[in-house]
Specification:
Helix 11 packs antiparallel against helix 14. The longest helix has about 30 residues. About 0% of the residues have low confidence. This protein is about 85% helix and about 0% strand. It is mainly α. The chain has two domains: about 180 residues, Up-down Bundle (Growth Hormone, Chain: A); about 180 residues, Growth Hormone, Chain: A (Up-down Bundle).
Length: about 400
């Protein structure tokens, strides 16, 4: 179990590595292949569409092939996509490679989240997503080593793709471990039954409220990261370089918060951690609204990040307890798909409101999303309380 857990942590680092690569490489990459400045948005949308599709079909695919095989094959898809990026002759090739990248990422996300929720305690889920943050942080750092060289982004992305291939080899050799853990769990349990369909799962008590929680949370998390710098510069008069540094504190708050949340979960339940996180993020939003000295904006972003930290992993870990182990993979796939929808739709909506009204809508928009998230989370917890552990 311990060896397998280490492999899962490594797989989540691998899941995080590609997520931040395109944005980091784009300024040089687009010039070399003649892509438009806005082209990264289309590539990102294709990746997101792939993750939604693979999340929705994850339950039946995992049921047929098993979590270990799906994780190894999906990681291979992401590795192949990254290697494809590295040899891209033109922009259209990036769009094609975005398809396997999205399909692989969505399948790994849904498979590993449900596997850990079923087989490990809640604090491991928090640390798991902390390791995703390490991967997302390490990607641009590794890429920066190569960017100073001619065509350096190709070498950098190719190197990260080869790291992913090495992870595929490790995951392939570990397949007997996955089967051993799964078979041990399935003895005498309902986990061997046929998974419910997506339509049937939507009728599960409390699942619509849980889906709304994921939608609002992911929309707020990505919206904050995307528009915080613009808000600081336009509304608070912060210099662009300093604003970028303060936004990094937001992500540091999420990563550090998930690390420490793992310890807090030894004493607090997942619903309590979600409630505490939501209230902390709301406090940060209020701090951004109040006419406080500018430095408090940095403190507010740290608070929002710390508040975000426990919500996603706790909601994921509650899935089997709330909806039953037999239904958990289908519910997980729906939750992942809804999460990706939130992160795709809400940040552009916030940008449109900022353009039509003012960038000062930023903290109010986040406040609405975090408020809805809290209400939906509480409704989901109450409706599924008889099934909770």
């Amino acid at each position: 179990m311990t060896i397998l857990l280490v492999l899962i942590y490594l797989a989540f680092i691998g899941l995080g590595l590609p997520d931040s690569l395109l944005g980091a490489a784009w300024p040089q990459l687009r010039i070399d292949i003649g892509a438009p400045l806005s082209g990264a948005g289309m590539v990102s949308m294709i990746v997101t569409a792939g993750t939604i599709v693979s999340s929705l079909v994850s339950a039946r695919v995992i049921r047929r092939f098993g979590t270990g095989k799906v994780t190894a094959i999906s990681t291979a898809l992401t590795a192949a996509a990254l290697l494809g990026y590295a040899f891209a002759p033109a922009y259209w090739w990036l769009c094609i490679m975005a398809i396997p990248l999205g399909l692989g990422a969505g399948a790994v996300d849904a498979a590993l989240n449900n596997f850990v929720a079923l087989h490990y305690k809640a604090h491991h889920m928090s640390w798991l997503h902390c390791f995703w943050g390490l991967g997302a942080t390490a990607g641009p750092i590794l890429l920066s080593v190569f960017l100073a060289r001619p065509q350096g982004w190709r070498t950098g992305i190719r190197s990260i793709g080869l790291l992913q291939l090495a992870l595929v080899a490790v995951l392939t050799f570990s397949l007997p471990l996955w089967r051993k853990v799964t078979e041990k769990k399935e003895i005498g349990s309902a986990a061997t039954s046929e998974p419910v369909s997506n339509r049937e799962a939507l009728r599960l008590r409390g699942l619509p409220a849980a889906l709304l929680t994921f939608f609002c949370y992911c929309g707020a998390e990505l919206g904050c990261g995307l528009w915080a710098s613009s808000f600081l510069v336009a509304s608070r008069g912060v210099a662009p370089a300093q604003a970028a540094g303060w936004v990094s504190l937001y992500y540091a708050g999420i990563t550090a918060g998930r690390f420490f949340s793992g310890f807090a979960m030894h004493r607090l339940t997942c619903p309590a951690m979600i409630r505490l996180g939501g209230l902390t993020s709301l406090a940060g939003c209020v701090m951004l609204v109040l006419p406080l000295p500018t430095v408090f904006s940095a403190v507010a972003l740290v608070l929002i990040g710390l508040g975000c930290a426990p919500v996603y992993p706790c909601m994921i870990h509650e899935t089997p307890a709330r909806f039953g182990e037999a239904n958990s993979q289908t519910a997980m796939g729906l939750q992942m798909a809804t999460a990706y929808c939130g992160s795709t739709l809400m940040p552009p909506l916030l940008g449109l409101l900022a353009q039509l009204v003012s960038v000062t809508v930023f903290p109010w928009f986040l406040m609405v999303l975090f408020g809805l998230m809290l209400v939906a989370s509480e409704v989901a917890a109450r409706l599924t309380q008889p099934h909770a552990s």
